Amino acid sequence: MGFALAEALAEQGAEVILVTGPVNLEVSHTNITRTNVNTAEEMYVQCVNIFPKCNGAILAAAVADYRPEEVSSKKIKKTESSEPLALRLIKNKDILAELGSIKKIGQVLGGFSLETHDELKFAREKMERKNCDFIVLNSLNDEGAGFKTDTNKVTILSSKSQNINIELKKKKEVAEDIVNFMITNYF
Fold it and tell me: I need a labelling partner for 118 at 20 to 30 A (CA). Which of 34, 125, 151, 163 fits?
């Protein structure tokens, strides 16, 4: 959804900075500046540095909540030991929460919330906890929505309007609906 949102924003005349992890997607609009990162920490640094200069941001990335505490630069070889290999995980920084904490009056912050149950409740709690103006709910229970497909079905929640259900359609069209919602309600 991030690339579709960047294109939809650019089509509306916005100067877009797209911060993205390693993907095989390309951008075509001249109003989009792409910033590539490889890790959640790099994405955090870029977003925290860029956001104060922006009118708004929509965070659509599914950044992992945790990362390995240690990363090996070499292959971990099999041993004769029957002891299990332990992998310790540590929390990544919460980019959306950090941007919500530094958001200035007049800036707009939108995020995504992927849920599997009690979707509306958890998405609204996330929106409030992270100081978002709106949140886009993806449910893993909706066939054809979200991942590994070119379609999506979402619900936009905000404090300014009732929930807006966007039925299953191409991600490009869903992105246009989200951008139109943002422009109509916040700009």
Answer: 151
